[in-house]
User: Fold this.
Amino acid sequence: MSDQLDLAPATDLLTSQEYFVNMGPQHPSTHGVLRLVLTIDGEIIRKVEPHIGYIHRSIEKMCEKDTYRQIVHLTDRMDYLSCHINNEAVCLAVEQALQIEVPERVKVIRTIIDELTRLASHQLWWGVMGMDLGAITSFLYGFRDREMINDIFEETCGARLTMNYNVPGGLMFDIHPNFQKRTKDFVAHFKTKLPEYDQLLSDNPIFRARTEGIGYMSKEDAVAYGVTGPSGRASGFACDVRKRHPYGMYPQVDFKEVLMTDGDCFARYKARILEMWESLRIIEQLIDNIPEGDFQAPTKQVIKLPKGEFYQRVETARGDFGVYIISDGNKSPYRLKFRSPGFSNLFVLDKVARGSKLADLVAIMSTFDYVMPDIDR
Amino acid sequence: MYDFTTLVQSIGNFLHGQFSPGVATALEWTLVILVYLALYAILGLVLVYVERRVCAFFQLRLGPNRVGWAGTAQTVADALKLLLKEPVTVNKADKLLYNLAPFIITLAALTVISLVPFAKGLQAFDINIGLLFIVAVSSLGVVGILLAGWSSNNKYALIGAMRSGAQIVSYELSVGLSLLTMVLLTGTLQLSTIIETQANGWWIFKGHVPAIIAFFLYLTASIAEINRGPFDLPEAESELTAGFHTEYSGLKFAFFFLAEFVNMFTVAAIATTVFLGGWMPFHLGDWAGFNAVMDFVPPILWFFLKVSAVIFLMMWFKWTFPRLRIDQLLKLEWKYLMPLNLMNLVFTAILVYLGWHG
Assistant:
């Protein structure tokens, strides 16, 4: 680092020089092994170059030798905060290819757990967002509420983080008898706690000053860079897969697509807070209406997809997640491509962060909600 | 009732009676230095423990509760750990300045604490320019921070140090001006006399609106001056990893850490002395019985009670608010706190000129 910092001659003391700072791969607010090479003029950012690849595990290549049942496991390890939704993408793609009609019960349970996953992800994001801006207390508040969801997951399928609850054709097990009661308890609990989030951060004047008008992303940029999820919707890009290409129970439930127009950090923040309310509404509508029936459609022991190309999109907590399978009729895909939302969301960072301060970069990164394993697959 | 003057005097007389004047003075000094060094270390340890417990209380946690009774030995264990750690010196660091920086910070923190009156007669230096001296010496700490940031040959440290420089130099003004407002009311810079003027009521109660404004301005500005959250930009963890002390480890890091906590105590102690009556007990008008009960509580306890209250307030701030950005921080000082301070000063001057103060 030091060799780049050459001192100006004495006659030239007042002219400023740009210099490089390596932010990451080990840095508290890059949330993983992201390395940003920043060109800085004093505190003002001139250029952001994301360098990725520190956690690349070649998941797509691994998929080419795994069976379709095994691929589902790998998707847990990508965006680990939306693991259930990632699983579902692969399962839906396989079900679509084999034209399996999953039971209604599966659809409802999947949708409820999707929304619980989204809530857990947003709760963690909210906590980390506060911590990035220096309000460490919010981190623990976020985790307090997330713990209840993790407990529900643990009871349902035995795992708290990488759940792997979906299998092609349905679910791995039926839900636990306590599931409905505990989920309802959680919804009631979280409805009283969500206003607390607003009290602690949203209404705080320092927090407002740190986020309002910071990191503006226009709708055009969001579309051009493919920024999806709450980050894209905060710029007015109507990209909610649950509305545009519905799957599961989403066509039947009543919920709003959260759309904002400001496109700044606060809009992205608010979009996620409002999305949490919508998730609660979806869960409330479904939790009492889980139909009786099987938790799995009958599938063959070895799944072989017909020759062809299959694509399935789902809405994870970070945005539009796509699975693109090219099958040559074997028990593992010929080629499999994941379209991860984090990847597109990361590369708009340079465009958004230029000209803002170093401290703003942390706020901007927080509001885009990066999960590194999702970006480096 | 609880006057330490005679005790201190008798120790002095004893030493001077036993030894020649030169030796006695040297012994006196050694004694004072030892006491203050011990106080410095103990204050640091206690405050670290308190901070961790208070922060845990705000964060739905328990905090340290295993080592020793209710976790009290945890900070001692941590201090031992820091003592045993290898003091890493960075390659290409400016060795002299790198090693000097922690001592400058410690020196500034120690010097300021020596002026704090803990109780009547329990004060190392009672000089007639007390407040001025405090403001002057406390700003020495920034030299240490700048040296640390500059010499450790790390860009994060450098950015932290530069932020710190801008921040401390700016907020120094508000600290000075808000204390100056109080000097107008008290009419003296000597800390012991300032406390004597509050025998019939603390300045925050009898100083009308200007004293209350000055108290909050002082608190805000001095929190910024000692780099505590929400103004902890020089060591902004999420941006600069650890700011100016990124490259320090072991005991040298402990020096920075300790100085930060002792500075917090000093700020609270000065706020207590100037605004909250120092070691003066709380009196309510002419309720003789109530006042007598209050008088019964030792002044040193009063002092530490008030200091604890102020420290709790500061911790409350830190664990609730997000951090400001550097330009917002400077804007707050130059656009809001400074003009408010100046107006408050003029207002107080008029008040004092008309003789309406207590």
The interface with chain B takes residues 1-2, 5, 19, 21, 27-29, 43, 130-137, 139-141, 144, 200-201, 204, 206-207, 209-210, 357-362 of chain A (CB under 8 Å). The longest strand of chain A covers residues 44-51. Strands of chain A lie at 18-23, 35-41, 44-51, 166-167, 170-171, 308-315, 320-327, 335-339.
